[in-house]
Design goal:
Layout: E1 17-24, E2 30-34, H1 49-66, H2 76-79, E3 96-102, E4 109-116, E5 126-131, H3 163-177, H4 180-190
Antiparallel strand pairs: 1-2, 1-4, 3-4, 3-5
This protein binds zinc ion (ZN) (3 copies).
The site of one zinc ion (ZN) has 6 residues, from α2.
Region (Disordered): 139-191
Biased composition (Basic residues): 171-183
Organism: Streptomyces sp. 900105755
């Protein structure tokens, strides 16, 4: 079960989580907040709880549509010691799924999170919206880097680099033509 996590194809990243929350106030109004700081909440503080609730559900669904499930994400449920399902322990395994957890009885919190296949069915009031694509490329061997085509210089037989071969041949002829030791004797006698 744990062998799959030994050699992840890519570096693991923390599982993401989005929490959309309907918060009631003392004056019977409510606001919608999102854990994503960049999210702006168009509906102002309102007493229209049904409208805010619908907006919150749509907002969570919008996050689910945009989010691409990370195949290399750690299970967010497991990172919280499986606090979502304390009575049914599980060992995180399998692929990554994006689940939306919403308790209709409470009706105030929408939690979108990346969890593993083992935790996803155990989280109450959660349904799987998307799954990460299986890393099928893990089995494909790495493509061989093509060797750059080099000109046939190393062979050298048909290349114009035959001049070095002629050089030693010419130099070997010179000592025969001009025997230097004989001239040295002559120079010594001449002076
Ligand atoms: Zn948001
Ligand atoms: Zn779990
Ligand atoms: Zn898990």
């Amino acid at each position: 079960m744990t062998t799959a996590a030994k050699e992840p194809p890519t570096e693991r990243v923390p599982g993401r989580v989005w929490t959309v929350r309907l918060t009631g106030h003392a004056d019977r109004t409510a606001t919608v907040t999102c854990s994503t700081a960049a999210c702006r909440m168009p509906p102002p503080r309102s007493k229209d709880l049904a409208g805010l609730r619908a907006f919150a559900a749509q907002h969570a669904a919008a996050h689910a549509r945009v989010a691409t499930v990370h195949a290399n994400a750690w299970c967010h449920c497991g990172s919280t010691q499986c606090a979502a399902h304390p009575d049914t322990p599980a060992h995180c395994a399998g692929g990554v799924a994006l689940v939306l957890q919403h308790d209709p009885l409470v009706g105030r919190v929408w939690t979108l999170e990346e969890v593993c296949d083992a935790c996803a069915p155990l989280i109450p009031n959660a349904r799987i919206l998307a799954r990460a694509a299986r890393p099928s490329h893990a089995k494909v061997p790495a493509p061989q880097v093509p060797m750059p085509a080099r000109p046939g210089i190393p062979g050298g037989f048909s290349s114009p680099t035959t001049q070095p071969a002629e050089g030693p041949a010419r130099q070997s002829r010179r000592p025969r033509r001009t025997p230097r030791p004989a001239q040295r004797r002559g120079q010594g006698q001449g002076r």
